[in-house]
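Researcher: Before we compare anything, I want clean individual predictions. No alignment, no superposition, just each chain on its own. First chain goes here; please echo the sequence and then give the structure tokens.
Model: Echoing the first chain and its structure:
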Amino acid sequence: MATGRVPNTDILNVAATGVEIDDRGFVKTDEYLRTNVAGIWALGDIVGKYLLKHSANLEAAYATNNIFNPDNLVAVNYHAMPHAVFASPQVASVGLTEQELEGRGFPYVSATYNYSDTAYGSSIEDNDGFVKVMAEPESGEIWGCHIIGTDAATPVQEAANAMRLRLPVDAITQSIYVHPALPEVVQRAFGQLPLSAA
């Protein structure tokens, strides 16, 4: 059962420091991870942005830079933050969902590819696993990649890396993939997208 998490700023008596918290109890920071009190920075779950260890690792790198280089502050870039649920089967995702794209009115194309349609997926007998991908039809900008299946957290990294660097679908479809290996399912999903000719 997943019931969510709440901050413990009340138990820590953060209010005694003068640091502002939001209505949910998370510490308020600016884009550089500074709080409203000079010399106090916050990162990780306590800021409530993404409650993920890899998000905290990202924030730690930015906070370190910003604390030790106050004349060269860099705003945290959360673009293409992947996440995964280590259940059976695994669920992994990066970017926008189809519903979010529709809600925002973004143009997109989508494709789905089954694990079992690859040599590796067939060999491990994952008959339920699949990858769903979305991209902008003209530019090929990757909007999202969502995977349910064996080791989903591993192949989703293909899309997360391309998205983080704002590379188009071609960065994945034109790469050479080891065969047979699970990441092929991601490449094949992107290869199914009906993109407009550039």
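Researcher: Okay. Second chain, same rules.
Model: Second chain and its structure:
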Amino acid sequence: MKTENQKKIKKSNGVSAGIIIFLCAIVAFCFFQFVCGNPANFDEKGHPINANVFGTLFQGGYVIPIVITLLLTVFVMSFERTIALSKANGKGNLVKFVAEAKGLLENGNINGARELCDKQKGSVANILRSALVRYDDIDGKNELSNDEKAGLVAKEIEDATTLELPVLEQNLSTIATISSLGTLFGLFGTVLGMIKSFGAMGQEGAPDSTALAIGISEALMNTAMGIGTGAVAIIAYGFYSGKVQNITNAVNEIGFTIGQTFTTRKNK
């Protein structure tokens, strides 16, 4: 059964990836249709005026708003992860908190460690506090050996970590998926653009220069947007995965320390 402290650790699952993608899709298609497709961006022949960026983007075709949706999704999820992981780190510096907590535990100051957790808050502090609560519960049970008690504390840390990790890793799998999807959709748009270009060149007589230019523009814009979106997604995933790993390492370090402190204290 979950302890009362573990239940408190359970947080909101945050913003759903589906909602983020849906809202980004609305923004992306509206931007593509009404901003990029604004007639003011084009001349009488339908070419972008002075290489207008929006007009050039509009010539990329209807794969472009899909890629823009993916790009916006990465930005929004990155912002959401920044806030979530900032809360998970707690109010103070995480490295300093771990060092102070280890010092208090090594000195047997359990109450001091608990007060430090209350001040720090965040995922690591929540997990440590859960372990300290479990520590107090089994402290007076003489029928258990030192190793059994240390094992119960380790199990409490493991259970508390299991509750925290889904919150820390939320939306990271979506960002990882977009790192591939962005490139694939870019290539898909490139192929569509090249099909139009070759279609224009295959006409009898002189090639349709306008259709040829539009096809090439569509291919290049999709290539650029797709590669750019994939690159941004890869960078974001690597950055926030590293943040989560840092928190996990801190939990492991704290867990090892409290287990060692418990055994040492009991063997004195």
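Researcher: What stands out in the second chain?
Model: Residues 75-267 form one domain. Additionally, The mean pLDDT is 82.
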